[in-house]
């Protein structure tokens, strides 16, 4: 069945070999020059983006003293993805992905440099922050799908799973290291210099992409006329469980669970633990430590399964709830490390499953939808969680931010279990396999399931 006239051969899922990623696989991928440069660029741009976001949030708190207005700044940084993200996927499938990333990163650099200069000189106003945040958000909306889809042009298909895992780990580690570095700089020299640091990191990203060997990039089969629209991408997503369900869970995690800068700001403010910028830096550093642990654990995966993504969603939500509701500072700090671990595992697992289930010719559009959910969810969640923290306090904000992904995981687990006739089997005599997911037979006897496979199609 074709997708409204598109060639089924071009949109069929690529083959993926199950099995654990080995150190030899990682080294083989890192020997590819363009991929090494891509890793450097992804890490630098991720650090830069999150340094800037944290510094902008703190700058807005200094200028206004209102957490809801801090959330509005977050919305302006990620909101453009809601408007242009899907269209950006069409652009990524039709034009040079490397050129798109280079141009958009240059836009981000000039925006960050301008805002840093205004803040350092003490001339910054609220409207300056909002304007530059919106411009940077627009650039990010266009860049994201192109950068995500470019990976298929850097490595051979058999190495794609390893490459996706490395890229996702590096991106999300940068997303947690960036706030940690920014928190330290804010406490020592101020938010303006932290934004300047993000501009320098962006330069590294631009330089890495400029050094690409374009002749080594694999060609992309461009969509035929009339078959490259957004609607085809949506139909493609809807028909594939290994793309649809990770995106459903991502919507809840991004909207509620990925508002960590707002949550950490609330925890460091007077209504929370009143630890100031130093405490904020500590929280983001602990989350980064958890991310490193999660990155190491992600390389030990034997296979990619939907149920793993569901379990990680629930674990991430539970870590946020426990960390925010238990009124013990030590428990809160341990909870931050745990949420860093589960966030990284969820993020790499979900993105890897989506990318590996998508054919290269339509990957730009699929990843655009993924980015719309990821960034758009954070845009909406920034305002919502910020308002909750301002009106109801830190603990309620943490409960909502973690509770919603947890509930979503439970609902999706029930749906998948009923669809595949699965149930839980408890065996207290074997602690290594005390709880297992098994398939239910009509006779009522439970047997180990034959499904789901490592990647459901």
Tell me the strand percentage band.
Answer: under 5%
Rg calculated over all Cα atoms: 22 Å
The order of strands across the largest sheet is 1-2-3
Helix/strand/pairing category: mainly alpha
Helix content: over 70%
- Provide the CATH superfamily of the largest domain: MFS general substrate transporter like domains
Order of helices and strands: HHHHHHHHHHHHHHHHEEE
Q: How many beta-strand elements?
A: 3
CATH topology of the largest domain: Growth Hormone, Chain: A
Count structural domains.
2
CATH class of the largest domain: Mainly Alpha
The residue-averaged pLDDT reads 79
How many strands, what sense, and barrel or not for the largest sheet?
3 strands, antiparallel
Q: Spans with pLDDT under 50 lasting ≥5 residues?
A: 1-18, 446-457
Would you kindly provide a written description of the structure presented here, covering whatever features stand out?
The structure is a single chain. The protein has helices at residues 8-11, 23-30, 33-64, 67-94, 97-120, 126-150, 160-188, 191-210, 230-239, 241-257, 260-268, 276-298, 306-325, 329-356, 363-392, 394-419; strands spanning 422-426, 435-440, 446-447. The protein is mainly alpha-helical. The protein folds into two domains: 8-406, Growth Hormone, Chain: A; 420-457, no CATH class. A hairpin with a 5-residue loop joins strand 2 and strand 3. Helix 10 runs parallel beside helix 15. The longest helix has 32 residues, at 33-64.
């Amino acid at each position: 069945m074709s997708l409204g006239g598109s060639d089924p051969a071009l949109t069929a899922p690529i083959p993926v070999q199950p099995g654990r990623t080995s150190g030899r696989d990682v080294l083989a991928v890192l020997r590819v020059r363009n991929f090494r440069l891509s890793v450097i660029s992804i890490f630098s741009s991720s650090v830069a983006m999150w340094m800037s976001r944290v510094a902008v949030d703190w700058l807005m708190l200094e200028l206004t003293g209102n957490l809801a207005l801090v959330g509005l700044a977050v919305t302006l940084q990620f909101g453009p993805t809601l408007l242009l993200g899907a269209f950006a996927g069409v652009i990524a499938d039709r034009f040079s992905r490397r050129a798109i990333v280079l141009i958009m990163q240059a836009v981000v650099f000039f925006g960050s440099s301008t805002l840093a200069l205004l803040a350092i000189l003490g001339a910054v106003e609220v409207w300056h922050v909002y304007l530059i945040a919106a411009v940077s958000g627009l650039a990010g909306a266009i860049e994201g799908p192109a950068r995500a889809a470019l990976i298929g042009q850097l490595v051979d298909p058999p190495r794609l799973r390893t490459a996706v895992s490395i890229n996702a780990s590096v991106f999300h580690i940068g997303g947690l290291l960036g706030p940690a570095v920014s928190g330290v700089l804010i406490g020592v020299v101020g938010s303006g210099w932290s934004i300047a640091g993000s501009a320098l990191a962006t330069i590294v990203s631009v330089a890495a992409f400029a050094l690409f060997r374009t002749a080594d990039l694999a060609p992309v089969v461009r969509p035929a006329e009339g078959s490259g629209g957004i609607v085809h991408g949506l139909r493609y997503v809807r028909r594939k469980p290994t793309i649809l369900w990770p995106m459903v869970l991502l919507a809840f995690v991004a909207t509620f669970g990925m508002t960590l800068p707002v949550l950490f700001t609330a925890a460091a403010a007077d209504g929370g633990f009143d630890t100031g910028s130093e405490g904020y830096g500590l929280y983001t550093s602990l989350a980064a430590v958890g991310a490193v642990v999660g990155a190491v654990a992600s390389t030990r995966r034997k296979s990619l399964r939907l149920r793993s993504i569901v379990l990680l969603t629930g674990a991430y939500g539970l870590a946020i709830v426990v960390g925010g509701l238990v009124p013990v500072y030590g428990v809160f700090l341990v909870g931050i490390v745990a949420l860093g671990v589960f966030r990284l595992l969820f993020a790499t697992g979900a993105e890897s499953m989506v990318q590996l289930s998508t054919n290269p010719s339509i990957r730009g559009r699929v990843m655009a939808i993924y980015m719309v959910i990821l960034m758009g969810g954070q845009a909406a969640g920034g305002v919502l969680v910020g308002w909750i923290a301002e009106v109801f306090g830190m603990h309620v904000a943490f409960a909502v931010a973690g509770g919603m992904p947890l509930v979503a995981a439970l609902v999706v687990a029930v749906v998948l279990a009923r669809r595949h006739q699965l149930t839980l089997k408890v065996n207290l005599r074997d602690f290594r396999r005390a709880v297992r997911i098994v398939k239910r037979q009509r006779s009522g006897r439970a047997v180990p399931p034959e499904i789901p496979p490592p990647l459901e199609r």
